[in-house]
């Protein structure tokens, strides 16, 4: 699903080497953590996958296609096939949970008659069907993040990227969000989670990639957190 072939990324002007000769293969259906200290290159890694940046050297492939061959409209097609979740859920405050999820379908080719089924299915996957009419303010932080996950998966993306998805959550809500991400993965979606949450990485064990100053220094198939 994701392949990095000798990928380096050097930012212009500051000439910071954010990623240094990274080789990596993530197969379809895997659940993978990406860990590393602040500044280690995690965001740069994610940004290459969504083609916000191009590598200075090497090649990034998503679903078997080299991203430098994606142009214009193809790039937006690529981004539509990747679900994204961030630390801040950015839900629209005046829309109910189900309308927030449905909003994401406006930019997909999914016909309107399928929206209700899709939205219902995505809310069921995150365990919030009973809160579909609630406004974000009526939901806990953890529930809001689960709505954001439903929004990210409603278009049925083969790949879900989560950047510090539990960054603003207490331990109980963090565990709930992790379980939801695992559910999403069990339905076949490849999931990549960039995180600082050591306890989660060590409790819910999955393959763990560790970045240190732009280098991929560990690739541990059974998890473990050692920066
Ligand atoms: P992380 O997400 O692990 O905190 P980043 O990928 O954000 O790491 O940053 C990796 C390195 O690249 C850091 O040294 C950071 O300062 C630098 N960096 C990140 N974004 C930019 C940018 N747009 N321009 C210049 N340097 C950047
Ligand atoms: P089914 O039983 O047909 O799988 P669901 O009611 O569980 O149906 O889901 C209906 C729709 O919800 C799916 O077609 C899909 O669009 C969306 N959906 C639910 N969960 C996920 C998920 N984990 N990943 C992607 N899409 C999902």
Give a verbal description of the structure:
The chain is of the alpha/beta class and 227 residues long. It has a 6-stranded mixed β-sheet, sandwiched between helices. Strands 2-1-4-5 form a 4-stranded antiparallel β-sheet, with helices on one face. Helices cover 31% and strands 26% of the residues. The radius of gyration is 17 Å and the shape is globular. The chain has helices at 42-49, 72-80, 97-103, 115-125, 141-153, 171-186, 198-203, and strands at residues 2-10, 17-26, 31-35, 57-62, 65-66, 82-85, 159-163, 190-194, 207-212, 215-220. Helix 3 runs parallel beside helix 5, helix 4 (115-125) crosses helix 5 (141-153) and helix 5 (141-153) runs parallel beside helix 6 (171-186). The model has no long low-confidence stretch (mean pLDDT 93). It has 7 helices and 10 strands. It binds adenosine-5'-diphosphate (2 copies). One adenosine-5'-diphosphate binds at residues 11, 14, 16, 18, 36, 38-44.
Number of domains: 1
| Individual helix count | 7
The H-and-E topology, N to C, reads as EEEHEEHEHHHEHEHEE
- State the share of residues found in helices, binned by percent: 25-40%
Stretches with pLDDT under 50, minimum 5 residues: none
CATH level-3 fold name: Rossmann fold
Shape type: globular
Count of individual beta strands: 10
Bound molecules: adenosine-5'-diphosphate
Largest sheet: 6 strands, mixed
Report strand %: 25-35%
Structural class: alpha/beta
Straight-line N-to-C gap: 25 Å
Mean pLDDT: 93
| Rg, Cα atoms, Å | 17 Å
GO biological process, one term: cell division
Organism: Deinococcus detaillensis
Subcellular location: Cell membrane
Protein name: Cell division ATP-binding protein FtsE
């Amino acid at each position: 699903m994701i392949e990095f072939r000798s990928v380096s990324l050097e930012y212009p002007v500051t000439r910071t080497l954010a990623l240094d000769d990274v080789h990596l293969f993530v197969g379809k259906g895997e659940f993978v953590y990406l860990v590393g200290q602040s500044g280690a290159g995690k965001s740069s890694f994610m940004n290459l996958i969504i083609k916000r940046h191009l590598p200075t050297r090497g090649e990034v492939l998503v679903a078997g296609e080299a991203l430098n061959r994606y142009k214009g409209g193809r790039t937006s097609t690529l981004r539509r096939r990747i679900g994204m979740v961030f630390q801040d859920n950015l839900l629209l405050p005046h829309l109910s949970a189900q309308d927030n999820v449905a909003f994401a379908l406006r930019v997909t080719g999914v016909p309107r008659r399928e929206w209700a089924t899709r939205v219902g299915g995505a809310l069921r996957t995150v365990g919030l069907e009973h809160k579909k009419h609630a406004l974000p303010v009526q939901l806990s932080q953890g529930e809001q993040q689960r709505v954001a996950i439903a929004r990210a998966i409603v278009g049925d993306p083969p790949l879900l990227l989560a950047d510090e998805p539990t960054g603003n959550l207490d331990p109980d809500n963090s565990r709930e969000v992790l379980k939801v991400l695992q559910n999403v993965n069990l339905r076949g979606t490849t999931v990549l989670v960039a995180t600082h949450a050591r306890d989660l990485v060590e409790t819910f064990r999955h393959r763990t990639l560790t970045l240190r100053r732009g280098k991929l220094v560990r690739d541990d198939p059974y998890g473990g957190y050692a920066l």
